[in-house]
Design goal:
The protein is an all-alpha fold. It has helices spanning 4-18, 22-35, 40-50, 55-68, 73-86, 92-104, 112-124, 128-138, 146-161, 173-188, 193-206, 209-225, 230-242, 246-257, 263-280, 285-302, 307-322, 330-343, 345-361, 366-392, 395-401. Helix 9 packs parallel to helix 11, helix 11 (193-206) packs parallel to helix 13 and helix 15 (263-280) packs parallel to helix 17. The protein is globular, with a radius of gyration of 23 Å. The model is unreliable at 408-421 (pLDDT under 50).
């Protein structure tokens, strides 16, 4: 039973959350939770804003609230959105095996967040039309609940944005609907940096110089609300690069890299260093190389089996070749591969598939001829860690966890891994 003080505190924090006043909301949540950690409503808002600081902790907090209060649908909707936006594999098996059955069979009282949860579950299962049907059929039922309705509009905006392609103009129906729903959300919740940023992304995807300049306005608007929003900073860096403002782009992403909260920052950082190294006047490539390897290991700890990690590892290969560091840092390559194994053994197999795919489909050329020996070296290191996995697991566990994923690799001879340096 909530006390009168509990109700007042929840109302206060909910308003801070609605106003996207992240710093005040987080500080207030911490104070309240020190005295009353049982208030899962407060922990819901704390977990929501943790997305901007620590993806792993955010998901853990949301999952803990779900385990304690599985039918507190507001928290679950934020958790599902977090899974969709920030993770590739994490949480999806849980959603498919437990959440869908539990929620679809639910016969209790249903609020607006329940229907958003159901729509997000269908989106995770890639039944996009069913997800859309739920959202569009319920969005007008909650006109008297601004927090619920703006979350409906946000999810509808995301639905249509996922259907757009780079280069679609403003006359495209999906682009129109994307902008319409995010703008409707902003009318209700004008400080929602999530909606502001997504409008920026929509204009950035249009791709014209005018649209890119407009996207910058929206990213800066989001940063005026929260200057430490690294999603907005990373997006701003990307669009500045597209406008050939390389130094400004690098200054922003270099700042983000110091905290490295998610994969896209590492990708943009590597992309700039690889493509604009001399223009950026970087002084110590050895330090940079060590830092990006360490940064990748931190991202692997968040979610090992994520293709963004494989892509960033591949960019690290390219960086090592550009500066003739491929042999000097074999120990760093090995350490990265060990991190994959320690956090998700299956990610080793998926990494191997990714690398073999690039080895097969790369076009011939001087850069590719330099790259192939490095790739083959890494493949040998992966094989070494797979052997370690086999030693650590029982025969049955190895067969179930690892061997079932190895069909792709079996078509290659060990002679394919011969390295000619």
């Amino acid at each position: 039973m909530l006390s009168e003080q509990d109700i007042l505190d929840i109302k206060e924090v909910r308003q801070l959350h609605f106003n996207f006043d992240q710093a005040k909301c987080q500080d207030r949540c911490k104070i309240i939770l020190q005295e009353r950690p049982h208030l899962f409503q407060i922990r819901t808002y704390y977990g929501f804003f943790l997305v901007y600081d620590d993806l792993n902790e955010s998901y853990k907090q949301q999952l803990q609230v779900y385990e304690e209060a599985p039918y507190y649908f507001e928290n679950t909707s934020y958790m599902l959105d977090n899974i969709i936006c920030n993770f590739q594999k994490k949480g999806r098996d849980f959603v498919k095996s437990i959440l869908k059955q539990q929620y679809s069979a639910y016969q209790g009282e249903k609020d607006g967040f329940y229907y958003i949860c159901l729509a997000l579950i269908y989106r995770i299962e890639q039944d996009y039309e069913k997800s859309y049907e739920i959202l569009i059929s319920k969005v007008n039922d909650y006109n008297d609940q601004p927090m619920v309705q703006t979350w409906f509009y946000h999810q509808l905006g995301c639905h249509f944005q996922n259907k757009t392609n780079h280069g679609d103009d403003e006359d495209n129906e999906n682009v129109k609907n994307t902008l319409k729903f995010f703008e409707k959300g902003l009318e209700i919740q004008p400080r929602s940096t999530m909606n502001i940023q997504n409008i920026g992304v929509a204009y950035q995807r249009i791709g014209t110089e005018e649209a890119k300049l407009k996207s910058i306005e929206y990213y800066k608007r989001a940063l005026n609300i929260n200057r430490e929003d690294h999603f907005a900073l990373c997006n701003l860096s990307v669009v500045l690069y597209d406008l050939n403002q390389f130094k400004q782009s690098f200054q922003i992403i270099q700042y983000c890299f110091q905290k490295l909260k998610f994969n896209a920052i590492l990708y943009q950082y590597l992309y700039l260093i690889i493509n604009q190294y001399y223009a950026l006047n970087i002084q110590d490539i050895d330090q940079v190389f060590t830092e990006v390897c360490q940064g990748l290991q931190r991202q692997i700890q968040i979610e090992a089996n994520n293709e963004s990690n494989f892509e960033n590892f591949y960019y690290i290969f390219i960086l090592s070749i550009q500066h003739a560091r491929q042999l000097k840092y074999v120990d760093l390559f090995e350490s990265i591969i060990q991190t994959f194994r320690k956090h998700d053994m299956v990610s080793l197999v998926e990494l191997e598939k990714y690398i073999l795919g690039n080895l097969i489909y790369e076009e011939e050329g001087e850069d590719q001829s330099k790259l192939q020996p490095v790739i083959k070296l890494v493949l040998i290191l992966i094989q070494k860690e797979l052997i370690v996995s086999q030693q650590l697991l029982s025969q049955v566990a190895y067969k179930n966890i690892i061997q079932s994923h190895l069909k792709f690799q079996q078509s290659f001879s060990h002679w394919d891994l011969f390295i000619d340096l």
